[in-house]
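Below is how a single chain appears once it has passed through the pipeline. First comes the sequence as given, then the structure the pipeline wrote out for it. We keep one example in the README because the format questions we get most often are answered faster by looking than by reading.
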Amino acid sequence: MLQNFDVAFRKKSLELLLKNIIVYEDDIINAIYKDFKKPAFESLITETNFVISDLKHTIKKIESWAKPIKVLPSILNFPSLDYIYRDAYGKVLIFSPFNYPFQLAICPLIAAVASGNTVTLKPSELTPNTASIISKIIRETFDPKHVIAILGDGLISENLLKKRWDYIFFTGSVAVGKIIAKAAAENLTPVTLELGGKSPCIVDETADLKVAAKRIIWGKMVNAGQTCIAPDYILVQESVKEKLVQHLIETLKDFYSAEPENSADFARIINSKTWERLTSLLDNQDIIFGGQGNRETLFIAPTLLNNPKLDSPVMTDEIFGPILPIISYQSEKEVSSIILSFEKPLALYLFSTNSNYINKVLSEFSFGGGCINDIMIHCINSRLPFGGVGHSGIGNYHGKFGYETFSHQKSIVKKANWLDIPVRYPKYEKKYKWIKKILNWL
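Resulting structure:
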């Protein structure tokens, strides 16, 4: 049976969620710090404030989003009024990842609740402190028959996937995304998969290299590189590579000092398994800057690599850490060859003032979203859809797009009774020739 909570109830629930998040904001930030030493400033900007802004926007717009949309009717249905209604799917399952453990749990939940669904949220077990505060907030906000958070390890996730859901939303790796999609297919359950990939950052000879260096380092090193839309590698025009590298090194020292392990502005790797995977990527590489690590503190220094081979481990999979390969190119053809050798990325970034090349890049490559002359900021605007394409994801959300993701678009024609044109009814034989002429004219 369709649940479809009324709009007033949904709005009231979101208002209470907003109130509780504001009350617990400091606790949320502290929990994230306990999980992987994410700086409070980064948590404020990319976690709590991001969610609060999303909530305020949704609360403000939910009534207008929920109204049926009147569309132009077909002349063949005259006289009629045609509408698109939005219904909740029903029971929604949301899996959230460790890297933005609050934002990527609560933002999909906001959209699902706004659309009228019931929600089961499974926060990441890799961030237990954040998962605990999320569970507390949900218990104090929602009736458990409406929204519930279930904590636990991978076995809990496997058991949840065995149940039948009306919609599944997953944020995480491509490998796990395939498992989610396979499980969902058993019941023909629709899914949104927010994944990742090797997101390129192109820097051509017309770029403002000093500005580019600051923006690239910020985007790559925020959250210690554990961001799905962080630039995975740089493709820089050979003639400006040396200057760019100098600016990148200067920026790293300026942001995190000569001893970044002591910097309060640099997060840690989520666990020892990931730390070992990342440090192994540095084997047999030409390290321009950084490369240091401390297993006990799960620290890996911001690291720049020089021209790694495309078949080396650091280039065959998404890095998802503070390691940034820098590859030089001579021609635009080389850029295309490298980018197209990988699956479609979640993001693409281009630093250039050459409008012709900008247009060429935007038309040539398929990717989820991106920026010209900046990094990651496209995800901030709730009026822009956020999502991937191909191996980097299925579907999108943020703002109204999230509301639509968790809503079934139901088409309704309201036909009048005052006129009933008999042409569609049998017998057809005498009507065929002239109705064909009319249809061709239409």
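The mean pLDDT is 96.

See the next section for the split statistics.
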